[in-house]
Input
Amino acid sequence: MFFGYNELSKYQFYVEDIPRGFSQWVCIGKIMSDPIMLSKRNGEVYCFSGHPFEVIEKGFGNFDYFLFNYVFGEKYSEIIPGTDEDGWYQLLIRQGIV
Output
């Protein structure tokens, strides 16, 4: 799940539990209950797990790479369970994007 502009502020509570908090991170979405964070320092996207969120579960590369491959590409199916029933992934397939 990725947050729209109007939803973004509602989910920033995830940032409170991450080292260097608001000075370095913006929560841009989540995979199940694990927040997806954009680093203000280097533009890289990460998924944190556990609570408190101290462990980087996975790095997704820079923001452009993340969008192209994980939001609009084949790698979406690597991070989102149940893509056979996922509306977004099925749209990508029907549009010939993946």
Notes: The radius of gyration is 14 Å. The chain has a mean pLDDT of 87. The beta strands are 25-31, 34-39, 44-49, 55-62.
